[in-house]
Structures are given as C-alpha cells and as structure tokens.
Amino acid sequence: xxxxxxxxxxxxxxxxxxxxxxxxxxxxxxxxxxxxxxxxxxxxxxxxxxxxxxxxxxxxxxxxxxxxxxxxxxxxxxxxxxxxxxxxxxxxxxxxxxxxxxxxxxxxxxxxxxxxxxxxxxxxxxxxxxxxxxxxxxxxxxxxxxxxxxxxxxxxxxxxxxxxxxxxxxxxxxxxxxxxxxxxxxxxxxxxxxxxxxxxxxxxxxxxxxxxxxxxxxxxxxxxxxxxxxxxxxxxxxxxxxxxxxxxxxxxxxxxxxxxxxxxxxxxxxxxxxxxxxxxxxxxxxxxxxxxxxxxxxxxxxxx
Length: 304
Hints:
This protein has 9 helices and 11 strands. With about 300 residues, it is of the alpha/beta class. The longest helix has 14 residues, at about 205-220.
C-alpha cells in the first residue's frame, strides 16, 4: 500500500493550555482535549498515512504537554467509538475511521543544541521515540538515539558552512538528512530586503537546495518534511513509500529510506503561515506565564 509519511509534524506551536490562551488560544486550537482529533482528522483530510508527532523542548517530562506523543495518549478515549485505535508497536498508534484509510501516529523528537552549546543551526530529528536526555552533545545524541533503535536525521545543514562542519562530525552515523523542509518557503530575493530580510534567511528555499547537495555529497538519503505548526500544513511535504507490514510501520520506513525506495513530496508552507508562526514565537516565546499549564514540564521538577 502506497502511503505518504510526514515525519516532522508539530500540529500546533504549543500544546500548553494556559489561562492566558498561550499557546492554543492564540491559534484557535482550544480546547486542549480536542488536539488529538484535530491532528488525526487533518491527516485524513490531507491523505497522509503516517504522521511523525514531534516534540522539541528544553524540558520534557513524560506525558506532559511538551511530550506531545505521550500527552496525546490521554486523549485516546475521547475518539471512541468514531475511531478504532490500536498500538501495533512501540511508538506507533493506528487510527481507523469507517470509510477512511488508516492513519498512523509515530513518536518523534527534534533535538537542538543545549544551552551553552552552539550547533550553528543544526538539529537532530529522531523518529521512533522521544524524551532523550536534553544536555547531550550532538554526537552523544546520535549515539543515544541509535542505541534505542530510533532513526536519526540531520536538519539545518543548509544554514551555513559552520553548520555543515558540525554536521560532518556525525553525518556518517545518521539514517539520513532532511533535505526539504516545507517551512523553507521564502525566495532568496525576499531575504535580501532591508530590515525584514535577515529574519527570513532561516526560512529560505536555498537552504533546501544546500541540504539536498549535502545529502548527495555524503551518499545519504534525503527526505522531505512539512515541519507543520498549523493543522492544515500536515502533509504539505513528506515521502511516498510502500507500507507492506501494518504491524511494523517503523521497520517499513527504515527499509524504504535506507534503500531509497521512496519519492519526496516537496511542497512549501504558505508564506503568511510561516510569518504567523515566527510572530507568535517572537511575541510570546519569552512570556513569563507561557507555561501555566498544571501539567507542564516547566512547572514540575525532574527535567530530563
């Protein structure tokens, strides 16, 4: 069965449900208890078969809103009897809705440089699990993910020569490279505009071209992802692959990527949506009350 897999999906900018409407209220995604249904329905509407539910945070306690995959597990009951849900393997949930094809949610995490370290924009995207330790070096993070049996992908390698030098230290050990990120949507000409240009460079389409060239230079598979921060962006980019074993989605993905038995869907997110995403992060990312959820990792001890 041919399936579209979008392996880096946030769905919303944050899963926190704070009284000040950060973040869900600012995006119109309240109530918090409807997040899982919104994501699954969006996948059905976009004809996406595999969705990599991605966590990325400096602090993450299992089942807190920052652990997105674990947090969504608590909303499973609200989907019965409209959906039939099963767990074919660790880190995967299957959703079937009468009259629709099946959607799989896969656990994923993007790891960025810990405080005090500089990876020059490079990140490590992990597929198969999350909640890895947060204070590892890039090499240690790759090793930890590999030992847990997760797939690993470098991203951000198109950002600069410094980024590529950082990536060089681990490129031989990762599963592949994210060579097309749908958030890299701005034409290079726009990045040269006065005042606004510098803030757009991180989302330039040339970053994808450079990442693709980097993947080819290392002989690594290069995959496409949406990096969706809005529900309607899910499936904007991804990989088409053949799903042969419904009880081993991760195995089929690993084999298809390793053997390059997939094709990339290279869509781009809407420029205004990316600008909205950037505005919300800039406006509220440092707000002192942005983690006012009772179950937020930031309000509890035990940071991983």
